[in-house]
Amino acid sequence: MTEFNKPTQEEDWGALAEKHLASIKRDMKISLENAAVRAAHKVMTEFNDTERESKVKQEAVRASFMDSLMLETHMHVVRNETIEEVARHIEKLTGFGQDTISSFAIYIREMKR
Question: Which member of 10, 46, 65, 108 has the lowest number of beta carbons within 10 Å of its beta carbon?
Answer without folding.
Answer: 10
